[in-house]
Amino acid sequence: MLPATPAFAAPTGPNDGAGVSAPLLSETSLRVATMATNLSGEEPGELYRDLLTRTDTEALRVADAISVANPDVMVLTGMDADQDAVNSFISDYLKSPDDERSDAGYPYSYLAVGSSGVQSGADLDSDRIVGGPGDAWGQRAFAEQASTVVLSKYPINQPDVVSVSTLKWDEVAGNNLGSSELSGAVAASIPVMHNGLWDIPIEYRGERVHILAAQTEPAHSSYGFGALRQKDELKVVADYIAGEDYVVADDGAKAEGLDGDRIVVTGALAQRTESTAAALALGADLGRDDALNDSGNFVIPNQGWNVLGQGRIGAEAPEDFQLLPGATPEAIETSDLIWTDIQF
């Protein structure tokens, strides 16, 4: 299996942190939000070109929600990890002077690139030809396609970001691989994470906060093993937090655990009914039975936080303080923005 392209973090504008104006930053609480998007092109650079028109329908939809919520940390799943596209989205949609939308500024971004889009070396789509998107992990055309992008008003500690994207499924303790139809070289080489798990430390009020962003097996996946894999993806998230030795990061380091740290687990965590219970159980393990979710997207702070408010922003949803039920509606590819306000 070819190595995955590493993820990277970078400021999204000229400010280095010292130049972030005070009104951008919350003084009493941290608002973390996530949203499943379709901000993706069929080839590298296509999303950037689409965004340059300043009329991209999906970008406008996402920007509208972000403008209303104005979160401190925004986790976008399903977005191409293209720095030019991210910069264009911020300048032309979130901060455009030509619209009536309230500006939302993000001096920092993390563009996650994991195992999806990396060629498997096998005929995964059974078309008798090895190569192309159908034979890549995640069935993607290139590594950055439909990945995870994190926008932050607070500095991202780039050297300490941890990526878990190449961990093989058969290396997961007590895995469900044996119950799948996979065998041989594919079973021995398939990554457990559909794309990856990223531990992104931010500096907030003098303390380190771990934003754990993940994007698990999507609802549209044609893989018959998707539900089994997703359960083990959620297990990896929990075991990374617990510091289980088998969880090895892409740089070869073993998970050290985050006991006692401030954590927020977020992203597209459960697009399948069978995995909803596992995602909710993850919230319970973190001491948070009131974890917010919508269509499989979750924001789960651990028990080190006080939850001040939660909500969902969408075309037909109230904008503020709506607690969502534990049951996940029918899975869809895009979703409303969901947010949680937390405080320590």
Annotation keywords:
344 residues; alpha+beta; Deoxyribonuclease I, Chain A; 7-stranded mixed sheet; 6-stranded mixed sheet; 6 helices; 19% helix; 24% strand; globular
Descriptive report:
With 344 residues, the protein is of the alpha+beta class. The protein has one domain: Endonuclease/exonuclease/phosphatase (Deoxyribonuclease I, Chain A, 4-Layer Sandwich), CATH 3.60.10. Helix content is 19%, strand content 24%. It contains 6 helices and 13 strands. A 7-stranded mixed sheet has the order 1-4-5-3-2-13-12, covered by helices on one side. Strands 6-7-8-9-11-10 form a 6-stranded mixed sheet, with helices on one face. A hairpin with a 2-residue loop joins strand 7 and strand 8 (207-215). It is globular. Mean pLDDT is 82; it is low at 1-24 and 315-333. It comes from Glutamicibacter protophormiae (Brevibacterium protophormiae).
